[in-house]
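Lecture 7 notes: from sequence to structure.
We start with the chain below.
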Amino acid sequence: MKKPYLIFAALLLFSATSYSQDIIPLQSCSNDLMTKQVDSLKDFYSHDGFILLKEASINMESEYEMPVVIPLTQGSWYQFIFIGDYTSRLYEVRMYDWNEKQVIFRQKKWGDVDGNVISYSYIPRFSEFHMMKPVQVNKQKKKNLCGYVMLFKKTGNTANGKPNP
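Predicted structure tokens for the same chain:
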């Protein structure tokens, strides 16, 4: 009779420790300046023959990566965009393939011309899940930083109707 109590106690202890871990929940945020940037980038890429596949505003914490898992198709041309809070000093995006090999690394600083926007193209060699990990460093606000991610895919036509080679 002691064994069921032992198992119950072990499960109770395990569940209590799993709830005590620091986990950043995925929450959306809003920022007027960022909304203008998002709208401008959507317009720019749609006129360049891309369609928006996924987008999300995310509430981030300084110096913590926010993993975003995305399925990609071999040979397709993708455009990834991360927009960080304008008050942050440093912005980075790392992308990994299914084998956890880093395939992209981009970094921007606040003083750069387009400092809070990281944009890069990628054509996967295999159809598999990839993980994009944006992070931003902000010395003024450690929590509640707004971030925005977008995934575009190139279509066969451009805005003027001419097919791409």
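Points to note: Helices lie at 2-19, 32-47. Residues 6-21, 158-165 have pLDDT under 50 and may be disordered.
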